[in-house]
Amino acid sequence: MNNTDQIPIFLSMFAMYLPRLIVCLVASIVILAKWRQASSGSPWALLGFGLALILCFVMPVGQTMLQLWVFQSGERESRMWAFTTLSIVGSVLQAVIYVFLLVAIFAGRSKTDAA
Length: 115
Known about the structure:
The protein has 115 residues and is mainly alpha-helical.
C-alpha cells in the first residue's frame, strides 16, 4: 500500500462522517445564534458539537494513518492492537459528547416543586 492509495481511503472514510459534519456545523451556528436565550446550556452544547466536529476529521485521518502503518510491513499481527485502541478512544470520546449534550439540556433549569 503506497501513499497514493491513502487519499481515496481517507475520502471514503470521511464520507461516512459527512452527515455528522453537516449536523455539527448547523448546530454550532444555531447555538451561537441563540446564545443569549439559553446562555447556561449553550457552552455545553457547543462543547459537545465541537468535539463531534473535531472527531469528524480526526477519526478518518487516524484510521488512514493506521492502515498505512499496519499494512506497510509484515508485522500486521503485532500492530492490529492499534485499530482496537483507536476504536476504544473514539467510543470514549463519543460518550463524552453525549455527556456534554446531556448537561446542556439540564443546565440552568430551575427545580420545580411537585404539585
